[in-house]
Amino acid sequence: MQSKILLQQNFEIKGGDFINAGESSIKIRNILKDIGIDSDIIRRVAIVAYEAEMNVVMYARHGKMHLYVYSNKILLKIEDRGQGIKDIDLAMQPGYSTATEEMREMGFGAGMGLPNIKKNSDVFNINSTIREGTKLEIKINLNNKNG
Amino acid sequence: MKKRKHKLAEIVKIFNLEVISGKEFLKREVSGGYISDLLSDVMANSQKDNIWVTLQGHPNIVAVAKLKELAGIIIINRRKPDGETVKKAHEEGIPIMTSDLPAFELVGKLYESGISGTH
Ligand SMILES: Nc1ncnc2c1ncn2[C@@H]1O[C@H](COP(=O)(O)OP(=O)(O)OP(=O)(O)O)[C@@H](O)[C@H]1O
Ligand SMILES: [Mg+2]
């Protein structure tokens, strides 16, 4: 079913920038709050956006996050240029992480990011090319009857 | 343990916490507590209006608290947040408090005072 696009915004994510990491996700949360999206949906989008953003910060040089709000769903696309993922099934396993010692000291690297993204998405797609980059596509349905 | 609603201001007073940021938000009521130093664990399992107990002090804790709509953060063990963390906490309106106690003692006391976990 085609549905109307209500809002579209793009965000830049800088690899390695742990100081500003999370800001794109906060902006997305604020936008969704402003336009009156249901708070349970916002919480799920916030988790998905944050974990995807952090993965770009940790494992890529640069990335973009695209937010699309439709009348019946929210679509997030995150694409980065970076190391890419060799084995996606392995990366999706809870607890699997290649985070460095430094990142672990900061509390990253539990290997829960991708599993949490999947858990909070209605549709989740991941594609990656080693040494090129990674693309995520996430859909979260809005449960409005007239969507 | 008898469940009781606490405002942040009461917790600050009872446990002698130092308020580093977000003084203007101490009226916030706390729904419960979560303790973890793993950020994706907090993202997954903390609940709205929880007080978050951690030893992490880097700027990313502010994003986590903001995105999960936590009531505030208590940093334990005499640790202090980074300068950048404090700056961001002011910008985003996140209360950060510090305690001299280690996690076990602080959480035990919070629990005793009526603040429960997420289960
Ligand atoms: N955008 C990405 N580019 C390259 N590798 C990635 C990317 N996202 C995830 N990975 C790989 O997949 C692994 C698992 O990712 P996941 O987000 O589940 O856990 P983590 O980032 O290691 O830890 P956490 O998210 O719990 O802090 C990572 O350790 C990394 O090896
Ligand atoms: Mg991750």
From TrEMBL, chain A:
Transmembrane segments: none annotated. SUPFAM superfamilies: ATPase domain of HSP90 chaperone/DNA topoisomerase II/histidine kinase. Residues 29-138 form the Histidine kinase/HSP90-like ATPase domain. InterPro entries: HATPase_C_sf, HATPase_dom. It comes from candidate division TA06 bacterium DG_78. Pfam families: HATPase_c_2 (PF13581). This is Anti-sigma regulatory factor.
TrEMBL record, chain B:
InterPro entries: Ser_kin/Pase_Hpr-like_N_sf. SUPFAM superfamilies: HprK N-terminal domain-like. It comes from the Bacteria. This is Serine kinase. It comes from candidate division TA06 bacterium DG_78. The lineage of its organism: Bacteria, Bacteria division TA06.
